Structure formats: structure tokens, C-alpha cells
Amino acid sequence: MSHAITDIGLLVTNNVELGDGSDENTQLGVIRDAALVIENGLVSWVGPKAKLQATDTVESVDFGGFAAATVIPGFVDSHCHPIFAGDRAAEFAARMRGQSYSAGGIASTVRATRAASNEALEVNLLSLKSEMIAAGVTTFEAKSGYGLTVADEARSLDIAAKYTEETTFLGAHVVPAEFADNRDGYVDLVAGSMLEAALPFSKWIDVFCDRGAFSVDEARHILRAGMAAGLKPRIHANQLESRGAIELAVELDCASADHCTHLSDREIELLATSKTVATLLPGAEFSTRSPYPDARRLLAAGATVALATDCNPGSSFTTSIAFCIAIAVREMRMSPAEALWSATAGGAKALRRTDIGHLSVGARADLVLLKAPSYVHLSYRPGVNLVEQTWIAGRKAK
Ligand code: NIG
Ligand code: FE
Fold first, then answer.
1. Which of 77, 81, 243, 285 has most ligand 1 atoms within 8 Å of CB, for mutation?
2. Nearest by Cα to 347 from 264, 247, 258
3. Of the bound ligands, which one is closest to the alpha carbon of residue 86?
4. pLDDT digit of tens for each residue in the chain (398 aa)?
5. Using the 8-state DSSP alphabet, how is residue 16 labeled?
6. Which residues have CB under 8 Å from 135's CB, separation 6+?
7. CB atoms near residue 162 (< 10 Å)
């Protein structure tokens, strides 16, 4: 049985070739008065509704009767830290009173995470996952990094791997307190037995290469060890300062360099001439009251830009990509079309995925119905969840 979604006022495919010319933002591949057919979890047909051939194997999907529904590819949240316990609301409140953000706050989440049961970690992850689906996220990445012992990193990833294939080993989040006088010992542990224990549950390896976390040489050592073991690299780069993490990202062909809050012209040029995606996480600048990354300079240079939430209890406790889109548009001067592309196709590129982030024939049928006449409403109506339905691999998840 196929499903045909037939009453789409505006469909964003992210496939330039499919666009009907009705929207000036050609990268979105917009089709007005569109239909889309799903078969076996994949998009099997897409085009103007008038051209849809009716067959008796097609069941029409009722989208609730919205005359002006907009359908977009599901959001791809390519940067999340959703496996943790504890609460840091007091730290946020202190920052809003003027305190500055530092990597040190991670230690309090590490203490709470180590003390939590597997069940508690799983319940928290599931609660965040259901928030994400309600917000239109159809793929999310999940990093470890709040366990920081061999057993706690392995169990965090074991839990994450039940809910997403995009799992990332982040043993190199910060050096935990018990290794304060033995950094080298911790780096060796991460690149050695911790990596080995994380391997069965991990696809990616990441390092927080920044002030208060890890140096470029330490990051290179850890990322190379992960790559030698079969993991693919990505990196936290230039959130707090520029210390060579972008050069390292490009040197190692990291899929993504994340944060990019402080970038020189040279670093922008490096990103623009590489396959490394610049992933911007404006929720972190919002919640740490920091200057936003310069998306316009990246886009002008031709870099590929992704937008993600960075969902974590310290620097960005949100699951709402629409919120990040609204900030990117209002504060970073991305156009609504650029921001939408970056949160869908851009996120897919940051995860080196070709099956998601667009709605071409053969793509996974991951899509979101917005109760709005246009994708512009994602930033035009900030703080309002416009997601009416979320479909993952051809099944309605919300
Ligand atoms: O991406 N930058 C490093 N890690 C997180 C923050 C983690 C925390 O403060 O708990 C981030 O912003
Ligand atoms: Fe992060």
C-alpha cells in the first residue's frame, strides 16, 4: 500500500531540479499545490498534484484539512548531547545575571550522570526524543561526554544507539576532576580503552577542542585513534576561541566543525574550500549571551552551513530547531530559506547522509507538515510550534 499526501499548498523538496519556479529561493526546490507518494518508507513520487496518477493502491493521507499546509523535509539535528542527568537552571540564571560561560560547568552534569541509573538516563533521552519529534526532528545525533569513565561513556552510547544511528563518542568533552593532575593519562584513556568500549555503539568521534577543554594536539591524537578504529571524525571548534581547531577539522576531513563562533577570514576560506560543514548552534550563543557566529561571511565564501540545536543541559537546553531558525534569521541575518535549508539539507550533509534532508524520489520519507502557508512562518511566528505532523520513514510519528 502506498500513501499519497495530496493537499500540500507548498512543498519544500530541497532538490533544485524539482522546483516549479514559484519561489525565488531555488535551492529549496519548491513545488506549489503538490503531492507526494510514499512507498516502503521512501518517497516514490513527487510533483504537482495535477500530475498525480490515481491508482487503487494509494491511500490518501488526511492532513487535517489545512488548505494551506506546508510540507518540508524533516529537520536533521546534527549536534545534540541528550544523554545526561541533572539540571543546570541555576547556572543559566547566574549567567543571565552576568556570569560568563566556561567549559567547567560540564563537571556538574558529569557528577549527576555518573550517579544516575541506566533507566533514568534512558527516560531522560526518551523525553527529549519525544520533544524533538513534536518539534519536527526526524534524525538526531547523540553524543556521549557526560560519563567520562570507560563504563559511563560505554553505557551512555549503548543507550543512545537504541534510538539513533548517529551516535558520537565524546569522551574528550573535558578532562574530569580525577585526572586534573594527569591530562596525558586521560587523553591516553580516551584514545585507548574508553574508545574500545565505546566502539560497538558509536559511528562518530568528536573532541571539544577549545579553551578549558582539549588542545589541538590532544584532539588530533584522539580523533586519529578513533579514525584508525573505524569511527568518522567531527569536532567542536571555535566556540570560545580560535586555537587551530578549524585547521585540524580540514586536515582530518571532519564531516563537520561545530560552533564556529569565532572565525578568521583564513578559517572561513579553509571551510569554504573543504568538505567540512560549518555547523552553527545559535542556541548556545543565546543561552550563554555570546556573540552569534557570522553566518553571512560563511555563506558569502561558499561554505556549507548547517544549523542544529546543540541540545545539552549547560549551554543550550532546547530541542527546538525552529527556535534556532528564528534566531539565525533575526540575529544572524540568514534568510528564512537559507535557515530552513541549513536545518534540513545542511544537517544531512553534516552527517554525510544522502538519504535524508531532501524529498526527492528514493529519499527516506521523513517529512513535517507545518500548520502554515509558508516555511517563512518558522521565523515569522517565533516561539509557536507550527509542526502539525512528523513522519519518519513513511510512518506518522506525531
Ligand atoms: O556544545 N561545547 C561543549 N559542549 C557543549 C556544552 C556542554 C555543557 O556546558 O554541558 C556545547 O555547547
Ligand atoms: Fe556541543
1. 81
2. 258
3. 1
4. 788 888 899 999 999 999 999 999 999 999 999 999 999 999 999 999 999 887 656 666 666 666 568 999 999 999 999 999 999 999 999 999 999 888 778 999 999 999 999 999 999 999 999 999 999 999 999 999 999 999 999 999 999 999 999 999 999 999 999 999 999 999 999 999 999 999 999 999 999 999 999 999 999 999 999 999 999 999 999 999 999 999 999 999 999 999 999 999 999 999 999 999 999 999 999 999 999 999 999 999 999 999 999 999 999 999 999 999 999 999 999 999 999 999 999 999 999 999 999 999 999 999 999 999 999 999 999 999 999 999 999 999 99
5. G
6. 75, 319, 320, 321, 322, 385, 387
7. 11
Closest to 345 (Cα-Cα) out of 306, 386, 376: 306
Q: Is 284 in the pocket of ligand 1 (CB under 6 A)?
A: yes
| Residue of minimum CA distance from atom 12 in ligand 1 | 315
Give the three cell numbers for residue 342.
541549513
Taking a C-beta distance cutoff of 8 angstroms, is the pair 116, 180 a contact? no
Place of cell 558520537: 168
Contact 283, 323 (CB under 8 A): yes
The answer for residues whose C-beta is within 8 angstroms of residue 319's C-beta and 6 or more apart is 77, 128, 131, 132, 135, 137, 309, 311
Grid coordinates of 345: 539539507
CA of 310 to the centre of ligand 2 (A): 5
Q: By three-state DSSP, how is residue 299 classified?
A: helix
Give residue 105's identity as a one-letter amino acid code.
Answer: G
Does residue 208 line the site of ligand 1, with CB under 6 A? yes
CA 190/CA 183 separation, integer angstroms: 11
Rounded to two decimals, the pTM is: 0.97
For the stretch 316-320, contacts whose Cβ atoms lie closer than 8 Å and that sit 24 or more positions apart, written own/partner, are 316/281, 316/283, 316/284, 316/286, 316/287, 317/88, 317/92, 317/287, 318/283, 318/287, 319/77, 319/128, 319/131, 319/132, 319/135, 319/137, 320/135, 320/385
Task: Mention every residue, 6+ apart, whose C-beta is less than 8 A from residue 266.
Answer: none
